[in-house]
Structure formats: C-alpha cells, structure tokens
Amino acid sequence: VAIKVLNDEFRNDPELFIALQRETKKSQLLAHPNIVTVYDFDRDGNNVFMVMELLQGKPLSQFIREESSNGMSFKNAWHIIKGLALALAYAHKKNIIHSDFKPGNVFITSEGGVKVLDFGIACAAGRSDIHEDDTVFNARDLGALTPAYASLEMLQGKDPDPADDVYALACVCYQILSGKHPYGKLSAQKALEVNI
Asked: For the segment 123-136, what is each residue's pLDDT rounded down to a tens digit?
C-alpha cells in the first residue's frame, strides 16, 4: 500500500477531517480498474493520512512532459483516453464528480495502466441520502480545483455537474494528443474573455 500524509489544513480543521473521512468512505465504493483503490482514511496523533493502492509509474502530467511533449498519435493515446473516460463515467453513475480532474490526478502505471487519483476530495452530485444536519463536503469550498481544467460553471460557483468533469476530460485529451493545454493553461473564464 501507499500512505499519503495530508497537509496541515486537514490536521487543524476537525470538521474538514470528518467530512473528508465520510467522503473517502463513499469513494471506497468506486471499485474500478481505472480508479485508484482507497483503503482507509484516518489520523495518528497529528498525522492525517490515506491508505491506498501502491502504484508504480508516473503522473500523466510527467508522462506528457517527458514522453509526448509534441502529442501522441490517437492510436497510442486511445487506451489512456478510454481509461479516463471509463473511470469518470463509472464515478458519475455513482453520483460522484471528481471536480479536480487534471493530468496531475491521473497516474500511468509501469505496465501502461491508467488510474484516476484523488476521488477522496470529490464532490457528490445530487445526493438524495443527505439529511439537513449532515456535513456536506464539497471540494470547491476548499479551493480544490485547478482553474486551467475547471469548467466555467465551476469557476462561477455553480452546483457540481458531471459536465464539469467532461470539460476537464476534453482539456486533458487535447493535451495528450497535442502536448499542450487547449487554452495555454488559461481558465475557461479567461479563454472566454479573450475569445480563444
């Protein structure tokens, strides 16, 4: 297994810890070959950590920089794109939206497998199981989004929607195929303003 120790923000905010713990338990339902397996989320003294599947390889962001800076052919990229799409589609069927989908949250294993990471800080969409007094964890409240991959609606603070992940997926696919972000890493709002 791999142990991911979380930063001080998680240590010092008991509500955030409880909300993340609840959300991680829900993300454990995401048993899919293209989603990293999360086994536990806990605290040991001041250390807050997640226990997850051990992966060997490199983040997609590094893979793009080192191995396809000028883009990959569609034929070579298809298994990556398909794995990403299948992972997100599976999560969306479970009403979970990643909300921070980007190359840094994707891992290419040494065997060429594709794993989407960090569903533990994802947003739940349209939950029908929420009671009025339940803590609702929304990654957007923490600023847990990356503007270059965030949909315009996310940047405007609208409710989470699977379309947010689809926008990010389109940006990532473009980057895999071309080696660069479709808007030069500008946010959707800035791209709209300059009419790219």
From this structure: 655 444 444 444 34
